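Mods, move this if it's the wrong board.
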Amino acid sequence: MSDLMQRCGVCRSLLDEEDLFCPNCGTEAPPHDEAPVATARTATYNFQCVGCGASMSYDAQAQALRCPFCGSVELESRPDAKILAPHRVVPFRVEQAAAITAMHAFLQRGFFRPGDLSQRAAVVNMRPVYVPYWVFTAKTHTHWTADTNQTPPGARGDWYPLAGEHRGMHQGVLIGASGALTPAETAGLCPFDLGQGLPPEQVDLENITVEQFSVPRKYARPLAVGAIEAAEADHCRQRYVPGSCRNLHVNVLIEGMASEPVLLPVWIMAYRYRDRVFRFLVNGQSGRATGQKPISWWRIALAVGIGLAVVAAAAAIAALAAS
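Not the wrong board. Structure tokens:
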């Protein structure tokens, strides 16, 4: 493969063999000897948010343009362009009213939240958005070692070493490809039932906000490897190590890793509480909620005070018992 085919013709950045566009400058990548797995489509009504930098294809019927991620109205129009096309789109199942109900239920949970948060939180912006994700699959061959506190009869010491190997198959490993949502936010929305995904031509992507892929496959792949390795460690700990476990080490060989781009449904909301605006997200398929919540500092102070009082009381009792 020539050097030109390995680098962007504009900025000379290195290109992954599956890149359709340069991850540095966005220039369309030159063709490879073998066609990439991903495909491109032409997007219209393209905008980029000046506030948060999100790139999206906006709802063609929108009366007022407002970024669903940060609420900014400073959106710069972009010409029609080729973008990465999803292989599947999971349609919305959760209606707007149900998403608002999920938000209020989420805000009621947690001791350190303000007591009136759910009642006083007011939705100031709400929009359904198709958010990009990469879906990875891979086979694994794992060698592991660990110590268990369940020692065999006659063994010396409190810990006993174990070792073994495991072969596994990981499917549906989701890595967010959003440029506006954080990795914690995209992970907090999971899981999704990818079996309900439809071909993109069967979903109306012209009259809804669609965020464009901002994380190239080459940068999502190491995150997927980390997620698979963590899953393997957790599997070995739960299945093969009885009792308490320490010093677990896994050596994971990943084979046949493949990926595909998908769009997943997310309700993105902004709510106001005491003159502050917080972002809130709802899985548009299952209703799973995640988001930001203000902290009640007086409740934190109360918890700290109770903890200190308990420690002081225990110290006083110990002093009396020693006297």
